[in-house]
Design goal:
With 361 residues, the chain is of the alpha/beta class. It contains 12 helices and 14 strands. 35% of the residues lie in helices and 19% in strands.
Length: 361
Amino acid sequence: MPSIPASPSAIHFFGRDAAGFDEDVSRWGWAQFRGQQIRDWVYAKHVTDPARMTNLSVTDRSLLGDNVVFCAAQIVARQASDDGTQKLLFTWPGGTSAETVMIPDGERRTACVSSQVGCPVGCKFCASGISGIKGNLLAHQIVEQVYRLNLLLEPASERVSNIVFMGMGEPLANYANVLQAVRVLHDPACLNIGARRITISTVGVPPRMRELADEDLPINLAVSLHAPNEPLRRQLIPWAEHFALEDILDAARYYFERTGREVTLEYILLSEVNDQPHHARELAKLCRTLRANVNLIRYNEVQGLPFVRPRAKDVVRFQEILRSGGVNAHVRKSRGRDIDAACGQLRRKQIEPAAVESDAL
């Protein structure tokens, strides 16, 4: 599907919730029901070519084609894993690029979407932030990732059921665009994904966490912790110097109080770095200070970085220590390890091949 160069005044369909798009078409003098007709074509019938929207007049189709951009990205790379996981790399006009992943699990089809190009956080173990932050994705670029996955799933009569903002970028550093994307994804007249099936994952931005708690959207919040204490956290996550761990935990408590939703603590296990028994005991003590559950994630290796995937016995021991301390801890399934599984790897291989080659030397 070719990319479409947008005029400065173009309306990006996927950046508009139902109310916003209805306002757009009303300015053309159209009846409000026209907005719903177009949404039916796009979201129900998966038609984004105005010329095929046959219940619109030829004149109206032409107006729509001249003023509205639907699918703007090109898929420049696609990888499929033996376990059913699929990863896509999109490029938009102007060179903006980002990854998205579809993860099948039973009846669930989860979209792991990106919110930025690159990442400002710079986690020492992650490919996304190796080259820093290049910019924010706009709301329509975030939503388009999900829509294009739905097109991929359509032949099997499937669709994305869950959304996790765990791809490239720090979602709360792109707050306005992420929230607008969430509203479009959640809107019953658009993609109609339940708020409780949407998760925003953050390294911890307390002011934005509190703002999110007040949005009246009962979405899930996950905090990428990765260390049970401040010194180790700052070694692994350079951005941690901006916000103290205790401030992040206070914001997580506020989120639970306002929404009633338990916060999830994401913890990537790095062999001999943060996966030892004393780390587990320290994490269990921290967890007892708030309503939270823990997702343990086995590290997916990144070429050029020194970290190693933990041994299975160390993962089991870590989980057992947490559970014996009263913590609800789960080990997340590793998916897509045969297709550049770690976040940011596919983009880096395609967009920055020279950097990847130098890592291998």
